C-alpha cells in the first residue's frame, strides 16, 4: 500500500519532491497546493524543466485535475495551510516546499486540513 503525499508549493523543490515520488511504487502524490501557479503552467514546468529535463511520464489536465501516468492528482490554490483540504484527497503526509512554514508551529497548520 502506497503512502499518500500532499505537496505544498510547486517551485523547484516541490517539483523535485514530485519527481522523486513518481519514481517510487510505495509513494503516491494525491494533492498539490500552490496558490501562485495554475494547472497548465504546472504541466509546462514539468514537461520543459531546463535543469532536470523533461518529465518521463504522461502528464495532462482533465476536469481541473492534474493527470500523471493515468492517476488524478487534486490541485489546490490556498494560501493558508490550515485551509488546504488535504483530507479531501487522502493525503497522509505533507511535504511543505514553500520555505515559508519553517517552524513546527507554523507547519502544524497542515494538520487542520
CATH classification class: Alpha Beta
Compute the average pLDDT.
89
The CATH fourth-level homologous superfamily: NAD(P)-binding Rossmann-like Domain
Task: From the 3D structure, determine the CATH topology.
Answer: Rossmann fold
Give me the count of strands. Answer: 6
Sequence-ordered SSE layout with sheet pairings:
Elements: E1 3-8, H1 12-22, E2 27-33, H2 39-47, E3 59-62, E4 65-68, E5 71-76, H3 86-89, E6 93-96, H4 104-107
Parallel strand pairs: 1-2, 1-6, 2-5
Antiparallel strand pairs: 3-4, 4-5
Task: Explain the overall architecture.
This protein is an alpha/beta fold. The chain has a single domain, classed as Rossmann fold. The protein has four helices and six strands, in the order E-H-E-H-E-E-E-H-E-H. It has a six-stranded mixed sheet with strand order 3-4-5-2-1-6, covered by helices on one side. Strand 4 and strand 5 form a beta hairpin. It is globular, with a radius of gyration of 13 Å.
Structure described in brief:
This protein has 113 residues and is α/β, with parallel strands linked by helices.
Notable characteristics:
113 residues; alpha/beta; 6-stranded mixed β-sheet; globular
Amino acid at each position: 500500500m502506497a503512502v499518500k503525499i500532499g505537496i505544498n508549493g510547486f517551485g523547484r523543490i516541490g517539483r523535485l519532491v514530485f519527481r522523486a515520488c513518481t519514481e517510487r511504487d510505495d509513494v503516491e502524490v494525491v494533492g498539490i497546493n500552490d496558490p501562485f501557479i495554475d494547472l497548465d503552467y504546472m504541466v509546462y514546468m514539468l514537461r520543459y524543466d531546463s535543469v532536470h529535463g523533461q518529465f518521463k511520464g504522461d502528464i495532462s489536465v482533465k476536469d481541473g485535475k492534474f493527470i500523471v501516468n493515468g492517476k488524478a492528482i487534486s490541485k489546490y490554490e490556498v494560501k493558508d495551510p490550515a485551509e488546504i483540504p488535504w483530507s479531501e484527497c487522502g493525503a497522509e503526509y505533507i511535504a511543505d516546499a514553500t520555505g515559508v512554514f519553517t517552524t513546527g508551529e507554523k507547519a502544524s497548520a497542515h494538520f487542520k486540513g
